[in-house]
């Protein structure tokens, strides 16, 4: 069995426009792949396909050597939770009704962990990503973007995923928060041997953080 | 301004003269309905043929009708019945609409198309006519009137719920829930419906004045509540016969009460809609 | 990444022309039910014609509130004190904080002081196309009807928007396109001072650079820009002067080149060290809540150089090549 998250010949159309054309991408356990490309080159779409959220029009995704049929709820929760995704806007990615503590614990509660155990794990993860306990009782509107993205990272790590996909996850954050989140992800990766995909337009960030960088040209096929 | 998120309630004045007036009218009307049995210990339908068509006076604030019943007394009972019918009918309509909208949005495909065609078809028919048809099929009774209103007023709720669910479903926080392992049911009950419930509640309250009017219209046409029951519609209908004899108060008093209470309800629910609707909110407070 | 900041010319400009904007002791507080938010504290800054001043800082440090305070767009629970004098080249000087809503609306907003808002999606009227919005704006500011249309096209091209996209409604635009449209709307009245609040949110790199260069060109032709951003790379690319904001205060306010080469305030140094092309090391600790600022220097709890002196507030940072708001500035003995 190979430990990798692999996109095979992925093709995606929106309406009649082809966004991705037979794209191959492989994220092996333990490596950090940078993905860059111009606006409209389908970087985010590729990340959503790899996160098992968007069904490609052609090609398939393989997780640890197993070819996956279908996306979203067609896959068992145990498969879905192997891949986590972090979006650019933490505000869009969080349910405004939940407190940060509930937000982080939600994936555990959704898969049947008892309330107290989930709460405890949420506190542990909040500490890991640098959220102070007094913030956990707040709702998203009462915290800053940086604090909310920290909570999103904690939520993404709650199931100990084998793969973490960051879709411009630090583009809206200040340099210090970005560096801190990068350090948290790198630590997690080292401990659990996770594979990481970094979608970013920031050349300096990719050079510093990624182990290799793949270029996705507009509507075309990747090189690198 | 996302740098500092402020509670939305701090950004606007809570009270405006119109809203205060509407609140006072509504509170007074409801209080009077509740206090009616204390003010008049007698049966509101008690006939007193010795005192027919008396003009308003201190003994009978709104006069008496052609059967000698006190109009003020009876109007309050009528309002009570009308509000009750309106509220229950609005709840029935919201329930049907919420269910249809949710089923259409979650099942999608053929189910969605079929349900939405049903909605379009019913919406194409005049709803008072449809309501009359439904009551005519059943025997005139409280339940028949409620059912008639409920079955004709759920369309907008169904449309709202369906479109809200469809647009919420594409939001990244739902993606995050799916990726986190949430089942279909959990996504629906924990992440989607809680956002739609305030909209359903809002649609329900906006519907109450409509439902009250609808009940009144049915009763006025003699298809609503049984004639011996005091309802605003029945009273206006009874009163119109007295108009020719000069007893204008028998119709006017229940009519004014209906207008005042439904306007107050509409004003208050409209205000609530402004506070809930993010688009209006954005325009008011950016 | 190139450093284009002409740090040496700023001083010369500052000496030659009177300040376009002169902010003195600006303080903004928000009353909440159970707390007071210290959003901006005793802030001083000046902007000269031709200058691009970047205010940088973490989200939640109060930098966005600064822009809204200058425009008189704060919610009702805010109290604003201090002075902010605007000297438009054509027209009378005006105190933005004291002149009242009427004068702000008639003479200042848009005309003398433009705003590129942070969230374009909520800033656009949903029922009008981009072209109508742009033409209306041009006409409202005295552009003749005849050539409003071509002028709208020119503005679109200037901000990097295809003129054909002007005929779309706001909901048909992507986030980046909406951002460029609000930039064009802010540029339409050609204000001498433009406030740009995170104008590059949602744009990809080439468009970020395009927008930044556009702001730079405006300054090169004599207008001024106050750029509010979390993005240090953006500030480095275009700013003449940089004001670093931390916990409601400006802690360092210096020419961009000097700041990037040798920051004086430990927080500025920490922020620069966090850049991926430098140490990529976060500033330790957490920023304080604006409802609960420590007495004295707000950065002291996170600062390696902090001593007992830091329990008293340092003197505010002065505009120009002055001091940082720090008892133990870098470059001086600790």
Name a few traits of the molecule.
heterotrimer, B: about 290 residues, mainly alpha, MetI-like fold, 11 helices, disordered N terminus, C: about 325 residues, alpha/beta, six-stranded mixed β-sheet, 10 strands
SSE map:
The complex is a heterotrimer of chains A (224), B (286) and C (334).
Chain A: E1 4-14, E2 17-28, E3 32-36, H1 43-50, E4 58-63, E5 66-67, H2 77-80, E6 83-86, H3 100-110, H4 115-129, H5 145-157, E7 163-167, H6 175-192, E8 195-199, H7 203-209, E9 212-215
Parallel strand pairs in A: 3-8, 3-9, 6-7, 7-8
Antiparallel strand pairs in A: 1-2, 1-4, 4-5
Helix pairs in contact in A: 3-4, 3-5, 4-5, 5-6
Chain B: H1 17-39, H2 71-107, H3 109-124, H4 127-137, H5 142-152, H6 155-169, H7 172-179, H8 184-220, H9 232-243, H10 249-276, H11 278-285
Chain C: H1 7-16, E1 21-31, E2 36-47, E3 52-56, H2 63-70, E4 78-86, E5 94-95, H3 101-108, E6 113-116, H4 120-123, H5 130-140, H6 148-159, H7 175-187, E7 193-197, H8 205-220, E8 224-229, H9 232-238, E9 241-246, E10 249-255, H10 256-261, H11 266-273
Parallel strand pairs in C: 3-8, 3-9, 6-7, 7-8
Antiparallel strand pairs in C: 1-2, 1-4, 4-5, 9-10
Helix pairs in contact in C: 5-6, 6-7
Please explain how this structure is put together.
- The complex is a heterotrimer of chains A (224), B (286) and C (334).
- Chain A is an alpha/beta fold and 224 residues long.
- In chain A, 34% of the residues lie in helices and 24% in strands.
- Chain A contains seven helices and nine strands; from the N terminus they run βββαββαβαααβαβαβ.
- Chain A has helices at 43-50, 77-80, 100-110, 115-129, 145-157, 175-192, 203-209; strands at 4-14, 17-28, 32-36, 58-63, 66-67, 83-86, 163-167, 195-199, 212-215.
- Chain A has a five-stranded parallel beta sheet, sandwiched between helices. In chain A, strands 2-1-4-5 form a four-stranded antiparallel beta sheet, covered by helices on one side.
- In chain A, β1 and β2 (17-28) form a beta hairpin.
- In chain A, α3 crosses α4.
- The longest helix of chain A is centred in the last third of the chain and has 18 residues, at 175-192.
- Chain A is globular.
- The two termini of chain A are 25 Å apart.
- With 286 residues, chain B is mainly alpha-helical.
- Chain B contains eleven helices and no strands.
- In chain B, 37% of the residues are buried.
- Chain C is of the alpha/beta class and 334 residues long.
- Chain C has a domain at 7-112 and 191-259: P-loop containing nucleotide triphosphate hydrolases (Rossmann fold, 3-Layer(aba) Sandwich).
- Chain C has eleven helices and ten strands.
- Chain C has helices at 7-16, 63-70, 101-108, 120-123, 130-140, 148-159, 175-187, 205-220, 232-238, 256-261, 266-273, and strands spanning 21-31, 36-47, 52-56, 78-86, 94-95, 113-116, 193-197, 224-229, 241-246, 249-255.
- In chain C, the strands form two sheets. A six-stranded mixed beta sheet of chain C has the order 6-7-8-3-9-10, with helices on both faces. A four-stranded antiparallel beta sheet of chain C has the order 2-1-4-5, with helices on one face.
- The longest helix of chain C has 16 residues, at 205-220.
- Chain C starts with 6 loop residues before the first helix and ends in a 61-residue tail after the last helix.
């Amino acid at each position: 069995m190979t430990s990798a998250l692999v996109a095979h010949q992925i093709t995606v159309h929106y309406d009649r426009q082809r966004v991705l054309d037979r794209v191959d991408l492989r994220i092996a356990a333990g490596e950090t792949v940078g993905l860059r490309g111009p606006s409209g080159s389908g970087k985010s779409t590729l990340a959503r396909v790899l996160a098992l959220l968007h069904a490609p029009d052609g090609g398939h995704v393989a997780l640890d050597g197993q070819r996956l049929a279908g996306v979203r709820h067609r896959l068992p929760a145990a498969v879905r939770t192997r891949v986590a995704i972090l979006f650019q806007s933490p505000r869009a990615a969080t349910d405004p009704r939940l407190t940060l503590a509930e937000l982080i614990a939600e994936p555990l509660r959704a898969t049947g962990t008892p309330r107290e155990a989930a709460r405890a794990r949420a506190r542990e993860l909040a500490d890991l990503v640098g959220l102070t306990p007094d913030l956990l009782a707040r709702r998203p509107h009462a915290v800053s973007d940086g604090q909310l993205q920290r909570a999103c990272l904690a939520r993404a790590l709650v199931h100990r995923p084998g793969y973490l996909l960051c879709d411009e996850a630090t583009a809206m954050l200040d340099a210090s928060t970005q560096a801190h989140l990068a350090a948290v992800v790198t630590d997690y990766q080292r401990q659990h041997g996770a594979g990481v995909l970094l979608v970013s337009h920031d050349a300096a960030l990719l050079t510093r953080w990624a182990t290799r960088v793949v270029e996705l040209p507009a509507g075309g096929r990747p090189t690198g | 301004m996302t740098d500092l998120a402020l509670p939305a309630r701090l950004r606007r004045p809570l009270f405006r003269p119109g809203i205060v007036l509407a609140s006072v009218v509504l509170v007074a009307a409801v209080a009077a309905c509740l206090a009616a049995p204390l003010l008049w210990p007698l049966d509101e339908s008690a006939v007193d043929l010795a005192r027919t068509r008396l003009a308003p006076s201190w003994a009978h604030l709104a006069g008496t009708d052609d059967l000698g019943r006190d109009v003020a007394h009876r109007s309050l009972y009528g309002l009570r019945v009308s509000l009750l019918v309106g509220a229950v009918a609005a709840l029935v309509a919201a329930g049907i609409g919420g269910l249809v909208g949710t089923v259409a949005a979650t099942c999608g495909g053929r189910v969605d198309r079929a349900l939405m065609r049903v909605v379009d078809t019913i919406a194409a028919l005049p709803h008072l006519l449809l309501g009359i048809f439904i009551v005519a099929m059943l025997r005139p009774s409280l339940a028949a009137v409620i059912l008639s209103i409920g079955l004709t007023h759920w369309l907008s709720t169904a449309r709202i719920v369906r479109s809200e669910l469809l647009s919420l479903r594409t939001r990244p926080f739902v993606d995050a829930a799916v990726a986190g392992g949430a089942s279909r049911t959990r996504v629906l009950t924990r992440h989607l419906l809680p956002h739609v419930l305030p909209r359903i509640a809002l649609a329900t309250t906006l519907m109450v004045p409509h439902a009250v009017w609808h009940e009144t219209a049915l009763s006025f046409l003699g298809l609503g509540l049984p004639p011996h029951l005091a309802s605003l519609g029945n009273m206006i209908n009874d009163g119109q016969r007295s108009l020719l004899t000069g007893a204008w108060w028998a119709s006017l008093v229940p009519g004014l009460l209906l207008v005042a209470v439904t306007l107050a309800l509409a004003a208050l629910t409209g205000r609530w809609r402004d506070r809930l609707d993010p688009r209006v909110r954005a325009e008011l407070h950016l | 990444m190139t450093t284009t900041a002409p740090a040496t010319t700023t001083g010369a400009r500052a000496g030659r022309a009177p300040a376009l904007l002169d902010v003195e002791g600006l303080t903004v507080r928000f009353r909440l039910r159970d707390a007071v938010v210290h959003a901006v504290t005793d802030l001083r800054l000046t902007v000269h014609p031709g200058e691009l001043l970047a205010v940088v800082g973490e989200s939640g440090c109060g930098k966005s509130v600064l822009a809204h305070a200058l425009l008189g767009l704060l919610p009702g629970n805010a109290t604003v004190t201090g002075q902010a004098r605007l000297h438009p080249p054509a027209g009378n000087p005006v105190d933005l904080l004291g002149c009242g809503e009427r004068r702000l609306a008639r003479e200042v907003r848009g005309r003398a002081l433009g705003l590129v808002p942070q969230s374009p999606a909520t800033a656009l009227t949903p029922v009008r196309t981009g072209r109508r919005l742009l033409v209306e704006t041009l006409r409202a500011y005295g552009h003749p009807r005849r050539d409003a249309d071509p002028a709208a096209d020119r503005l679109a091209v200037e901000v990097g928007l295809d003129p054909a996209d002007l005929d779309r409604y706001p909901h048909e635009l992507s986030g980046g396109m909406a951002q460029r449209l609000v930039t064009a709307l802010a540029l339409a009245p050609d204000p001498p001072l433009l406030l740009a609040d995170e104008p590059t949110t949602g744009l990809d790199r080439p468009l970020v650079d395009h927008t930044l260069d556009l702001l730079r060109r405006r300054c090169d032709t004599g207008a001024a820009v106050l750029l509010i951003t979390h993005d240090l790379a953006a500030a480095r690319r275009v700013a003449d002067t940089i004001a670093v904001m931390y916990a409601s205060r400006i802690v360092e306010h210096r020419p961009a080149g000097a700041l990037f080469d040798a920051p004086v305030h430990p927080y500025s140094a920490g922020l620069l060290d966090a850049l991926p092309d430098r140490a990529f090391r976060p500033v330790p600790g957490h920023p304080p809540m604006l409802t609960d600022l420590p007495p004295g220097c707000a950065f002291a709890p996170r600062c390696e150089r902090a001593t007992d002196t830091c329990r008293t507030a340092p003197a505010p940072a002065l505009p120009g090549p002055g001091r940082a708001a720090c008892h133990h500035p870098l470059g001086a003995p600790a």
